[in-house]
Amino acid sequence: xxxxxxRRKFRRDLIVAGSCGVFxxxxxxxxxxxxxxxxxxxxxxxxxxxxQIAERAPDRTLDRTIRVRLDANVMPGLPWVFRPExxxxxxxxxxxxxxxxxxxxxxxxxxxxxxxxNVSPPTVGSYFHKINCFCFTEQQLAPGExxxxxxxxxxxxxxxxxxxxAEINTITLSYTFYPQRESSRPVADGTPNGxxxxxx
Length: 200
What we know:
By secondary structure, the protein is an alpha/beta fold. Helices cover 22% and strands 36% of the residues. The protein contains 1 helix and 11 strands; from the N terminus they run H-E-E-E-E-E-E-E-E-E-E-E. It has one helix spanning 2-45; strands at residues 52-53, 65-74, 80-84, 88-92, 97-105, 111-120, 128-132, 138-141, 146-155, 170-179, 187-188.
């Protein structure tokens, strides 16, 4: 009789242990998936001022213009000078515009950086569409090298129909370069015309 009870108790303990193991595995998996899922969510919704990625221009351009301010930052540890060629521009909503940022490696050694970006106010993230950009690709600069990096974007005409968007007259596009110790992603080097080879 006691043997049967022992077997049932053993099976129950196995089920409990297995359930705990599955739960732990699911939590570990969720932790690893949190970052890419959050990144996907931001890209999809524009949450936190994350611009959208577009493959082509919109089908219409409005007469309304908006001011786009360009911001450039470099984090400590990366000896680069990074700035936009223009501090601000005026663009019609729906118009595709190409702007250049310029970066210079001030050291006598090869250095690598990678840029992140956002736009403000945060609510405009879902309407600010990039067609081409140098972000999320490691940029490797030779000693003293200067490189021009283009950004191609437009402001979605649907913003004009949004009551919140109707009040927006200025958008700030901000890039920040971070130092990279080693190349873990595709590295962009300069092509003969000085443009980065890899995008995104």
